[in-house]
Amino acid sequence: PGAPLLGLHRHLPPPPPLPPPGAGPGPAPARQSPVLCRDREWEEENQRWVQEVSSAPSTRLDVVHLQEQLDLRLQQRQARETGICPVRRELYTQCFDELIRETTINCAERGLLLLRVRDEIQMTIAAYQTLYESSVAFGMRKALQAEQGKSDMEKRIAELEEEKRQLERQVSEQKAKCEAIEKRESERQQIEEKKHTEEVQFLKRTNQQLKVS
């Protein structure tokens, strides 16, 4: 059968498929010693397959092959060399798990210590990821608030500019009224002065005529 794309863990060849649920018990498959990596399970043509992780000791050639496979997978899956890359992290995690598996076979205590180191690293990464996601969410909220504040400020500026234009129109109207009043008052004053001057001249002429007669 065609197994799914395997990671960097070394597995045994897949045994015959498991019997479907409810079928009679068959011969128990020979299991290897427990290791730190999970068995692989998949279904194909309505049959469930299980591929166990190998517990055989690894040779120097196996380690070289692991490195070659890691480089190949990084290239095939187009993992980024720098920055945050889920693909690169996944492949290096698989590689580290395989190294832990190989180490545990030779020395269980050293393998368990590496397992603790791996778990601590994963918890640290998860904490940083949570902090990063919280920071991104906080930044997005602040950006939205700033955008909303900018929109409100632009609206307020438009209202004030409209109010300014209305006040300028009122000032222009009041100036025009004031100029018209001043013009009318000036004309009225000129008429009054002319009338007063004519009356004075009339009285002077009348007085002069009375003196002559």
UniProtKB/TrEMBL annotation:
<keyword id="KW-0175">Coiled coil</keyword>
<dbReference type="GO" id="GO:0036126">
    <property type="term" value="C:sperm flagellum"/>
</dbReference>
<dbReference type="GO" id="GO:0120316">
    <property type="term" value="P:sperm flagellum assembly"/>
</dbReference>
<dbReference type="GO" id="GO:0005930">
    <property type="term" value="C:axoneme"/>
</dbReference>
<feature type="coiled-coil region">
    <location>
        <begin position="143"/>
        <end position="201"/>
    </location>
</feature>
<dbReference type="Pfam" id="PF10211">
    <property type="entry name" value="Ax_dynein_light"/>
</dbReference>
<keyword id="KW-0505">Motor protein</keyword>
<dbReference type="GO" id="GO:0097546">
    <property type="term" value="C:ciliary base"/>
</dbReference>
<keyword id="KW-0243">Dynein</keyword>
<dbReference type="GO" id="GO:0005654">
    <property type="term" value="C:nucleoplasm"/>
</dbReference>
<comment type="similarity">
    <text>Belongs to the inner dynein arm light chain family.</text>
</comment>
<dbReference type="GO" id="GO:0045504">
    <property type="term" value="F:dynein heavy chain binding"/>
</dbReference>
<protein>
    <recommendedName>
        <fullName>Axonemal dynein light intermediate polypeptide 1</fullName>
    </recommendedName>
</protein>
<dbReference type="GO" id="GO:0030286">
    <property type="term" value="C:dynein complex"/>
</dbReference>
<dbReference type="GO" id="GO:0072686">
    <property type="term" value="C:mitotic spindle"/>
</dbReference>
<dbReference type="GO" id="GO:0045171">
    <property type="term" value="C:intercellular bridge"/>
</dbReference>
<comment type="function">
    <text>Involved in sperm flagellum assembly.</text>
</comment>
<feature type="compositionally biased region" description="Pro residues">
    <location>
        <begin position="13"/>
        <end position="28"/>
    </location>
</feature>
<dbReference type="GO" id="GO:0030175">
    <property type="term" value="C:filopodium"/>
</dbReference>
<dbReference type="InterPro" id="IPR019347">
    <property type="entry name" value="Axonemal_dynein_light_chain"/>
</dbReference>
<feature type="region of interest" description="Disordered">
    <location>
        <begin position="1"/>
        <end position="33"/>
    </location>
</feature>
